Amino acid sequence: MTVAYGGLVPLTGFGTAFMLTGAGVVTAYAALENTGLRRLTAAP
What is the pTM of this model? Predict the structure, then answer.
C-alpha cells in the first residue's frame, strides 16, 4: 500500500491498480494459510 500510494515508485493508474490487486491477493493467501495452520496445529 505504501509503495502504491506513497510515491516511492512513480506509477500510472494501471500500475497502481495492479499493485493494489497484487497486495489483495497476497493478503488473502496469507489469511487462508494462517487459518489453515491454526486448524492444523489446534489441539483435537
Answer: 0.70
Q: What angle do CA 19, 20, 24 make, to 5 degrees?
A: 120
User: Max CA-CA distance within the chain?
Assistant: 50
* CA pair distance 21, 27, nearest whole angstrom: 10
Question: What pLDDT, in 10s, does the model give residues 1-44?
Answer: 677 777 788 888 898 899 999 999 999 999 989 888 777 777 66
Residue 13 sits at the vertex; the CA angle it makes with 26 and 11, to the nearest 5 degrees, is: 75
Distance from C-alpha of 36 to C-alpha of 42, rounded to nearest angstrom? 10
